[in-house]
Each structure stands twice: as structure tokens, then as C-alpha cells.
Amino acid sequence: MTFYFPIANDAWGTNMDKFTTIAIEQRDAIEIVTLNRPDARNAVNPKMADELIEYFAGLHDRLTARIIILRGNGKEFCAGAELGSDAFIAPGNGRPQRQLAMQQRYSRIIRLMRSCPQPIITLLHGAACGAGFSLLLASDVRFATPTARMNAAYIRVGVGGCDMGSGYLLPRLIGLSVASELLLTGRFLGADRAKALGLVSDVVANDKLLETGLAFAAEMARNSPMGLRLTKQTLNALIDAPGIDAALMIEDRQQVMLLETSDHQEAVAAFREKRDPAYRDQ
């Protein structure tokens, strides 16, 4: 099945008109980010990299967007980096330095996805290869269609299998053994095995993919805005915590901060009164 998603303008108006490789749709506190190069299978070129950097960097100070959904327009989620693009620096003096700068430009997307306070839900249909696979790994929650497939394609084009965060994120998501299998071979992982490994939360029908993502985002949006942001931040810190004492210390401080918010008081009152909370992000 081929996916062509309708792209709507969001409440930012002309601010988002400058994006040509991604499209943004705003639905209350949820924003849908669509990789929008369907004729190129949504391959990441330097232009798309720059637009993803600008978008995710902007989220750090724009807290009205509480949850992000990432998806692809067309037949594939993302076929990887565009091999014929300017991402592959021409020979000449200073090529290693220029190539490093370009490499860091791409890897910055992953850093910003992990550091932005909003949880990111990725909806995978078709293929997620190379850079597309790394975008998937950098998300917080993933849903896939039955025909979805993914691979760390890097090693198949003559470079290392660890790229754009794959060597860090994949072992933490599915364990070192299977991560080594995938990174050392570049072999494809199907949706069913990805679910069995815990890499995707569920496999859903093609026509239910967006609905599933929006329903999950709505479930998260029922929680307090600051609680949601600090939970992602705390998970990021705890994945590398040196031990249980450090982990408990971080969690204790998070809870004390949140106990002092009016949104905590509102959540307790709503629970007791059997109603939906009305958060003010305070």
C-alpha cells in the first residue's frame, strides 16, 4: 500500500512555509512532523538535515508543543541518507575536516531528538534504512505496519555500522547481542521481530497507523506537561546512571519538583472528583 498523507498548515503560519523537505501539522498540543520528499523515498539530504535540526532545536523553548509524531510521506518512512547528495564531500584539501563537519551536522539531529523535552512517537511504514533507522531509534515510542522493515544500512556502503547514534541507542533498546547482529551485517529487521524485541510497541494495520499514534499521544497528553517533560529527561539520565543510588537521587529530585506544582494538585483533585484534569503547566 502506498501512503500519501494530506499535509496541512499549522498554527505557526508562515514560519513553517520555509520548510521544503518536512511538513508540520499542529493538532492542539500534538505536532505531526512529516518527512516530505516522497519522490526520493524521504532520503535525508543536507537540506532535510538542516530543516530537522532547526525544527527539533526550536522545540526546546517552544513548550506549547507537548508531543511530537514523526512519519514519512509516500511509499517509505525514510530510505536513509541520499548517497548522491552533498553529504559526501568532494575530494580535495581539507576533505577529512569537511566530512567531519557534515557528519556532525547529521548526528546533531539525533542529539536534538533525544534532548528536546517532548516525547517523540515515530510511525513506521515501508523502509527505515540507515539515517531513517537512526531517526527511529532516537524516538521515544515506535509503531509499525506489518510490512515495515528497517536496517542499519551504513555497513553495507563501506562504512561502520555504528552511525547517527545507532551504536549507542540500539544496544540499549534491544541488547548487545542482537544489536551486534544487526550492526555488523546490515540485515533487515521485520516488524514482527522488531515487536518481539521490544523495538516497536505494536504492529498495526496500515490504515490504523496515524490513528494509533494520535491515540497514544492523546493518552500521554492527559498527564501534566511538566511531568511529561521531566519523565523524558529523567529516562535520558537514568539510562546511563552509574548505579541505583544515583538513579534514586535523580528520581527523588524530580518528584520533589513536581510535587510543588499546581498541576500536581490539579491531578490529585481531578482523580478524587473523577474528572479530567485542567492543567496550566504550573
How would you portray this structure in words?
- It is a single chain.
- This protein is α/β, with parallel strands linked by helices and 282 residues long.
- Helix content is 44%, strand content 13%.
- It is built from ten helices and nine strands.
- It starts with 21 loop residues before the first strand and ends in a 9-residue tail after the last helix.
- The N terminus is likely disordered.
TL;DR?
The protein has 282 residues and is α/β, with parallel strands linked by helices.
Could you list some keywords that capture this structure?
10 helices, alpha/beta, 44% helix, 3-stranded mixed β-sheet, 6-stranded mixed β-sheet, disordered N terminus, 282 residues, globular
Major sheet characteristics: 6 strands, mixed
Assembly annotation = single chain
The chain-level structural class is alpha/beta
Radius of gyration: 19 Å
Helix coverage percent:
40-55%
Write the layout of secondary structure elements.
Elements: E1 22-27, E2 30-35, H1 46-59, E3 67-72, H2 95-115, E4 120-124, E5 127-129, H3 131-137, E6 141-144, E7 149-151, H4 166-174, H5 176-185, E8 189-190, H6 191-197, E9 202-203, H7 209-221, H8 225-238, H9 244-259, H10 262-273
Parallel strand pairs: 2-3, 3-4, 4-6, 5-7, 6-9
Antiparallel strand pairs: 1-2, 7-8
Helix pairs in contact: 1-2, 4-5, 8-9
